[in-house]
Write a structure and sequence with these properties.
Largest sheet: 5 strands, mixed
Number of domains: 1
Shape: globular
CATH class: Alpha Beta
Strand content: 15-25%
Distance between the termini: 33 Å
CATH architecture: 2-Layer Sandwich
Order of helices and strands: EHHEEHEHEHHHHHH
Number of helices: 10
């Protein structure tokens, strides 16, 4: 199957405190106390090694995605950027976010692109969809054993860049910010994932969505460089895709200031060299 669209995505989450009473019996109503109880639980089950909450205990508060049309040519691929946008709990509850994501995915049937999406984003989305009764049959379709969304090495179906760049664990699995630092890309600036829960508590969902969109842009730019390295994108096609990103930011930067900040950080990181020679 030749996919016609790229779908680069990222999610932001906060701890699911509603699950705490059923999980541990701790039923104090205070939100922070329940978050602390979740942390205590995860430290206990890992003998103090890891307090990061397992995937079912993350509540999705924002989903951002970039969509690009894939043009298949005799010598590779060309990408035509269509949009970058988000949903968040400011205007949608978690169930509607999940319905929107999976509904769009089922219609589009795209090639998914993520950074740690196989290890975190998709498992979270699956668990939360199950909790809300949201179906996603396409995601689990394995009619073709080797080419489907669950096949680990099928990067034309779901390219998890953290996996692909490490040759699926043959080398160290690096962070998005780390690979951005060597490619002249902005990486994280201003906000990181540890700040999402406090921002959510303060009602700053719009800022969470903005942060999520910059992670999606970083992921897309890394993907472009990886595809160029693999010979899937020619240098001309790479530069066309990069120019599309800049054009999008120029067109929408006045109403979406975080995009302007992104391109400024990109310029600083790259010495204002946005295209490849």
């Amino acid at each position: 199957m030749q996919h016609r669209n790229l779908f680069v995505f990222d999610i932001e989450t906060v701890p699911d405190t509603d699950a705490v009473p059923a999980l541990t019996g701790f039923d104090a109503p205070d939100i922070q106390a329940r978050r602390d109880e979740l942390t205590r639980y995860h430290l206990e089950i890992t003998d103090g090694r890891n307090d990061f909450h397992r995937q079912p205990f993350h509540r999705v508060v924002a989903i951002s995605f970039l969509e690009a049309e894939i043009e298949h040519t005799g010598g590779g691929e060309v990408y035509h950027l269509k949009e970058l946008r988000s949903g968040g709990e400011e205007n949608f509850g978690e169930k509607k976010l999940l319905q929107g994501f999976f509904g769009y995915f089922e219609r589009l049937k795209p090639r998914l692109v993520s950074f740690n999406g196989r290890g975190f984003d998709l498992p979270v989305l699956k668990y939360r969809a199950m909790a809300h009764g949201v179906a996603a049959p396409l995601l689990h379709n394995t009619d073709n054993k080797w080419e489907n969304y669950t096949a680990r090495y099928a990067t034309d179906w779901h390219c998890d860049l953290m996996e692909a760049l490490s040759d699926f664990g043959a080398s160290a699995r690096i962070k998005l910010n780390e690979v951005c630092s060597i490619l002249g890309l902005p990486g994280k600036f201003g906000v990181d994932g540890s700040q999402v829960a406090p921002m959510f508590d303060q009602g700053r969902v719009g800022e969470i969505r903005d942060y999520c969109e910059t992670d999606v842009l970083n992921t897309y730019l890394v993907y472009l460089r990886w595809q160029h390295h693999r010979g899937v994108l020619s240098t001309e096609a790479l530069n066309k895709a990069l120019a599309d990103v800049i054009s999008l930011i120029e067109a929408e930067g006045d109403t979406r200031p975080h995009l302007k900040r992104f391109v400024e950080a990109w310029g600083e990181a790259s010495g204002n060299r946005f295209l490849m020679d």
